[in-house]
Specification:
The protein has a single domain (6-88), classed as Alpha Horseshoe (Serine Threonine Protein Phosphatase 5, Tetratricopeptide repeat), CATH 1.25.40. The longest helix has 15 residues, at 55-69. It starts with 5 loop residues before the first helix and ends with a helix. It is mainly α. It has helices at 6-17, 21-34, 39-51, 55-69, 75-88.
């Protein structure tokens, strides 16, 4: 059901575990369509794009994620996010 984003998140994780980044990306995009504020899908989608080699898309998503959620993160999560953003810029 397109109104419920959580199943898309889980299916995306299953696809990622199988090495199917395209399937994972599709699912996480659908999750964000259903709920643009679904932070876990936002982050997972960004990392999938980074792993797929699309650093520009990953950077855009991670920058938006940082703008929305950085103030809620613990220091270790902030460091991890900043490292991913830096990786996009290399």
């Amino acid at each position: 059901d397109p109104e419920y984003p959580a199943p898309y998140l889980g299916l995306g994780h299953a696809y990622r575990q199988q090495g199917n980044l395209g399937g994972a990306i599709y699912c996480w995009e659908k999750a964000l369509e259903a709920d643009p504020d679904f932070s876990q899908a936002h982050f997972d989608l960004a990392i999938a794009y980074l792993n797929a080699g699309n650093k520009t898309k990953a950077f855009d998503l991670l920058s938006e994620y940082k703008k929305r959620y950085y103030h809620l993160m613990i220091p270790a999560e902030k460091e991890r996010l900043d490292a991913f953003i830096e990786q996009c810029q290399k």
